[in-house]
UniProtKB/TrEMBL annotation:
InterPro entries, per the entry: Xyl_isomerase-like_sf (IPR036237), Xylose_isom_bac (IPR013452), Xylose_isomerase (IPR001998)
PANTHER family reported in the protein's UniProt record: PTHR48408, XYLOSE ISOMERASE
Positions with a binding annotation for Mg(2+) 1: 231, 267, 295, 338
Subcellular location: Cytoplasm
Annotated active site: 100, 103
GO BP annotations listed: D-xylose metabolic process
Originating species: Clostridium estertheticum
EC number(s) per entry: 5.3.1.5
First-level EC class: isomerase
Name of protein: Xylose isomerase
Keywords: Carbohydrate metabolism, Cytoplasm, Isomerase, Magnesium, Metal-binding, Xylose metabolism
Family in the record: Belongs to the xylose isomerase family.
Leader peptide range in chain numbering: none
Binding site for Mg(2+) 2: 267, 270, 306, 308
Amino acid sequence: MNEFFSDIQKIEYEGKDSKNPLAYKYYNADEIIDGKTMKEHLRFSVAYWHTFTAGGSDPFGVATMQRSWDNLNGMELARARMHANFEFVQKLGLGYFCFHDRDIAPEGEGLAETNSNLDEIVLLAKKLSEETGIKLLWGTANLFSNPRFVHGAASSCNADVFAYAAAQTKKALEVTKLLGGENYVFWGGREGYETLLNTNMGLEQDNLARFFHMAVDYAKEIGFTGQFLIEPKPMEPTKHQYDFDVATVLGFLRKYGLDKDFKMNIEANHATLAGHTFEHELHLARVNGVLGSVDANQGDSNLGWDTDQFPTDVRTATLAMYEVIKNGGLHSGGLNFDAKTRRASFEPIDLFYAHIAGMDTFAKGFKIAHKLVETGELEDFVNERYSSYSSGIGKDIVDGEAGFYELEKYVLENKTIVNKSGRQELLEGLLNRYILE
């Protein structure tokens, strides 16, 4: 098989003073921090769909991306893309990739032919994985692109569509297990509604929960031990999505008894669309024990849709990695670049520039966050701010030893309440000091 990126050599670490655009400035895969290499801490992954199947089209224009496999089609194209994937990941020096089932193999005339196509490419991926050591971070099923999912998949009003989605997910779970996938993601792009005038929301959410329970049961049956992840997103394509944000998904999982089986795959751009910061969603997932993996990208505050840009904001990366470190790492999860080059960045080399920029951003953010955690300056401030709950009446509140009668008595017997400043500007300056030093 010919190389698809023959003019690109393996990307190496050259340090922050390097001017080489095809070299890492901050990501040193072999650098050891707290007993683990940076490669082990960050667990970077390439997103198959944006990197190898996205053409650069948008609602106003056709595809612009120039790829050496553009002259191919069908299964020949699928095989070429899989070879290109492993070459690309290997040249970046990464350990993982992610895919949807329909990214890697085309649909056939029916489910049987479609599954056969998928089987062929999965066997190729398995062979290449064994040869290179590159692994599957997570797999998933595309339950949103085909017109059959116009009304949703597991939440569809059509039971035949629910059945097809189940069959497709069954197969996706099988191939994810075959490839040693460490996680399986559910992204419910069509799981929601446009108007309540034609929607039975109760039934749709009940059916979505039934679907997830079926997946949990089947995973146990086939011995898939990877982590199940749900990826929150508030809108686009569906007006009201059932996986709006971390808080919404948490409520759903707890209502239906699924909270022990699922964690979250948090995407930065989705947090923005939900009206949250990236670190908010990561923090909320962490303190509730459901931070599983990260889709590393960023949006554009001037554009109201999911732009999926490569992450280059060091401040945001620092706050994100602070949450990850406080989480004890990402465990079986990773930092998946669910990001695409801009439509005007259409040459193959731009794929390397983009991933290098994103990796350096998160590597720098990780190092800054590690120092913040080590010194404990932020944590010490927060602990002091809430110190009134460590003794006296505050401790009684926390320990459940004070009710309304006791609290009323306490207020009547004590002096005027005195609050202290929250020092937000001081702390933002402190964060800048770590970033800029």
